[in-house]
Description:
By secondary structure, the protein is mostly helical. Helices cover about 80% and strands about 0% of the residues. The protein has helices at about 1-30, 35-40, 45-55, 60-75, 90-125, 130-140, 145-160, 175-215, 220-225, 230-250, 255-265, 270-280, 285-315, 315-320.
Amino acid sequence: MILRFVARRALAAVPAIAAVLTIVFVVVHLAPGDPVIAIGGEHGDAAHHAFVRHTFGLDRPIAEQFVVWIAQVARGDLGVSFVHGRPVAQLVLERLPATLLLTVTALLLSTALGIALGSVAARRPRRPVDFAVRTGALLGAATPSFWLAQLGLVAIALGTGLVPVQGMTDPRRELDGLAWALDVLHHLVLPAAVLAAGELALTTRLVRVGLLETLAEDYVRTARAKGLDERRVRRHALRNALLPVVTVIGGRAGMFLTGAVLVEVVFAWPGLGRLLVSAVESRDHPVLLGILVLVSLTVVAANLVTDLVCGWLDPRIRAG
């Protein structure tokens, strides 16, 4: 049963992946700016520009370029960077661990705190605690991550000196082992908190609303009437209330990567965000395509995992 469920979801993802690859390629090539000018310089002669265009295959028809690129991606080859002269896969893999560390930490932080705060607010609805949680969630959802990052940089990093201003490690010290890990964690605190703030607000509100609706269901009142322990009742209700939360978190998992771009730029975090910004500035199409493909596939994979988790939370979904 589970294997068939996974197979159905995986097959359903194939058309989505094909559509994503097509859209990403078309959007990047329709974007303004000529990569040849960025590579060869505005004052380069026509012969040099023609040589650059031929070297990178940019003189071929767009349809032919697309077919060649799709064949490369199918082999796991993302091409060679125009600017760096290195395989895009290597560039992405070098920056990916830093971005994953930031985004996964922010996702876990926002999910755990969101479930906890939403549960506390639902336990005492329309009380001061509930009002404070809802107000905080509203402010968090309304605050752009880029502005919050700058505010945290000025008020916390520069104002108090409790956390580092930028970077992933302290370049003035040579550390290894546990000391290096603690240094990375020290640098991670503020960027992860900023990135998690918006998602924390959304998760908190979803958990609160879902739990209040679930606790009003007939089966919950029946369980209480039978004398079931209140803690067990709330635990069972929370599991059912988490279905929409899991769906939203899975659907926004890829957004963490795009949101991390702004946070990485502000805090000089050495991840994919800074590589993406430099690729946009230099019109480095292979790097742009490689990162966008990674983000798109992450969204598709996150949706697949979301379906599996929802199927685990509610077996009726697997039977559908």
